[in-house]
Design brief:
Elements lengths: L1 E6 L5 H12 L3 E6 L13 E7 L7 H9 L2 H4 L3 E8 L3 H6 L2 H12 L8 E4 L11 H12 L2
Parallel strand pairs: 1-2, 1-3, 3-4, 4-5
Helix pairs in contact: 1-6
């Protein structure tokens, strides 16, 4: 399997989750910050995982631009998955989370639909990740690769 885990991170929590997911996927896996991904990185992929922190109920602008610019030829031939990092305070639930929005945008680009989106909990605005979230991320990464 050839996989690419693309992420953006504000406080480092989403990067940690992306690394845990990437380490759990069998095969050749590249884990890369969104601004460093090249068109060549999208060649011959089996799985594309996209992760973002939730900022105002949405993914970061960089992740939104990446998803919007993702060629339909890529989106239609690879397995797609989205995750986010999020806080669980009541006001955050009102605005929503990044991963479902990314998954919705990906679903518009492919016929099969993405792997169900997942959120990983951050304690407080800047972290750290809640206990057990890196292990849960690794398990989600294994499931996404099947």
């Amino acid at each position: 399997m050839k996989a690419l885990v693309v992420y953006d991170s504000v406080h480092g929590n989403t990067e940690k989750v992306a690394q845990a997911i990437g380490a759990a996927i069998p095969g050749t896996v590249l884990v890369s910050r969104v601004g460093l991904v090249s068109a060549r990185d999208l060649d011959a992929l089996d799985l594309l995982v996209i992760g973002s922190p939730t900022v105002g109920g949405r993914p970061t602008a960089s992740i939104q631009a990446f998803v919007n610019g993702l060629p339909e030829s890529t989106a239609s031939r690879v397995r797609l998955a989205a995750f986010d990092t999020r806080i669980t305070l009541k006001f955050a639930r009102v605005f929503g989370y990044a991963a479902p929005r990314v998954a919705e945008a990906l679903a518009r680009k492919c016929s099969g639909g993405p792997v169900p989106a997942e959120g990983f909990i951050v304690r407080g605005r800047s972290g750290p990740l809640a206990d057990g979230e890196l292990e849960r991320a690794a398990e989600w990464g294994r499931k996404a690769s099947r």
